[in-house]
């Protein structure tokens, strides 16, 4: 198969980790007889430096004109002061919105080799952690009106959280369809005891759930979910929630598995095209030192093969190669522990390549 992949290396450790992921994709292409064409574009802080905007029109066009997008990370302290409309993160919001990517899928899976890295008690970890957060990505408070105004001699700031039925319905379908391929359990997270948008959320999710009698659906309030994730994460299979709650809960879910450097994500819309990226940021503290963990980005590439290109065997070959590198004791600094062999970002790439 021929696929065109738009590649955004971005800022900080972005270029280092994406380089390793592209090496892995090249090896897969060679082994399985595919051809991947990469179109590299500038977005994020590096684009601000070059063009004065984090998402030049030409870059956006290449995201719309490809089979999928692979992203490293954007941002860093250098651009903290810039106007909010051209901030590095604005590029991501712009791409997600233009590509219609309304679903963010984030697996939180504990690698048994790294169980010691989980901050949870061993007896809780022993029950296993393998859940998938399905977060609504282009609605809610992040996309509602943001207003700061003067009222009665002081500043008043408002962020509007809005959801329509069709926005809730499509993300609910993503969750139920995904659950069918996993443990057939959906937990829908809201704050229906307080928020109108959550009451509508709950009603629409129940309506969709009725079409999936083979999948169980349970409601959970967001504050309780935050507690349950640390109390017994093994109870979760697919968790579906709105944008702001999902942002917070998916970070929490990632932390309980250990390293933030290990976790991939995908953002999907109606078609098969998606955007794939590790969940972490640009890690300015270790950028340019060949210290970053490339596994989150490599597993993001694996997700791209599975969800967008229908290449299940190829995707699983990458996962197996990562597992083997961990089994063999290789660790980047962020996941290093006693008795293991510490490797650099590019050495971890080498080890994974050898296993494919
Ligand atoms: P971060 O995820 O970049 O870093 C948090 C901590 O985790 C740091 O100590 C870092 O060294 C470590 N870390 C992250 N990824 C790692 C990896 N692959 N290997 C080893 N260690 C890793 O979060 P932070 O520091 O809050 O944000 C830094 C910058 O990244 C900010 O400008 C932020 O806006 C941006 N950011 C970008 C995101 C994106 O592009 N999707 C997402 C989150 C933050
Ligand atoms: Mg976040």
TrEMBL record:
It is found in: Cytoplasm. Pfam families: Iso_dh. One of its GO terms (biological process) is L-leucine biosynthetic process. Keywords: Amino-acid biosynthesis, Branched-chain amino acid biosynthesis, Cytoplasm, Leucine biosynthesis, Magnesium, Manganese, Metal-binding, NAD, Oxidoreductase. InterPro entries: IsoCit/isopropylmalate_DH_CS, IsoPropMal-DH-like_dom, Isopropylmalate_DH. Binds 1 Mg(2+) or Mn(2+) ion per subunit. Belongs to the isocitrate and isopropylmalate dehydrogenases family. LeuB type 1 subfamily. HAMAP family: LeuB_type1. This is 3-isopropylmalate dehydrogenase. The gene is leuB.
């Amino acid at each position: 198969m021929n696929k065109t992949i738009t590649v955004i290396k971005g800022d900080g450790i972005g270029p280092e980790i994406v380089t390793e992921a592209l090496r892995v994709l090249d090896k897969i292409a060679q082994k399985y007889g595919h051809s991947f064409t990469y179109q590299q574009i500038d977005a994020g802080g590096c684009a601000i430096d070059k063009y004065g905007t984090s998402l030049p029109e030409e870059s956006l066009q290449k995201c719309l004109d490809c089979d999928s997008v692979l992203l490293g990370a954007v941002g860093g302290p250098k651009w903290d002061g810039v106007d909010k409309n051209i901030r590095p993160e604005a590029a991501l919001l712009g791409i997600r919105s233009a590509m219609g990517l309304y679903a963010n899928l984030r697996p939180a899976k504990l690698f048994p080799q790294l169980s010691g890295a989980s901050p949870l008690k061993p007896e809780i970890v022993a029950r296993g952690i393998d859940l998938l957060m399905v977060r609504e990505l282009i609605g809610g408070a992040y996309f509602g009106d943001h207003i700061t105004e003067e009222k009665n001699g002081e500043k008043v700031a408002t962020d509007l959280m809005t959801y329509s039925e069709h926005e809730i319905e499509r993300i609910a379908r993503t969750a139920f369809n995904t659950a069918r391929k996993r443990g057939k359990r959906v937990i829908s997270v809201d704050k229906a005891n307080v928020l109108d948008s959550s009451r509508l959320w709950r009603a629409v999710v129940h309506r969709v759930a009725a079409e999936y009698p083979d999948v169980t659906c349970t409601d959970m309030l967001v504050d309780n979910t935050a507690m349950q994730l640390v109390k017994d994460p093994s109870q979760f299979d697919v968790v579906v929630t709105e944008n702001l709650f999902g942002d917070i809960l998916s970070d929490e879910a990632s932390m309980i598995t250990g390293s933030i450097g290990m976790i991939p994500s995908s953002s999907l819309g109606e078609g098969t095209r998606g955007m794939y990226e590790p969940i972490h940021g640009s890690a300015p503290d270790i950028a340019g030192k060949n210290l970053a963990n490339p596994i989150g980005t490599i597993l993001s590439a694996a997700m791209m093969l599975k969800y967008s290109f229908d290449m299940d065997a190829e995707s699983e070959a990458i996962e197996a190669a990562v597992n083997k590198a961990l089994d063999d004791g290789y660790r980047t600094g962020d996941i290093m522990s006693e008795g293991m062999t510490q490797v650099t970002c590019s050495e971890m790439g080498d080890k994974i390549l050898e296993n494919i």
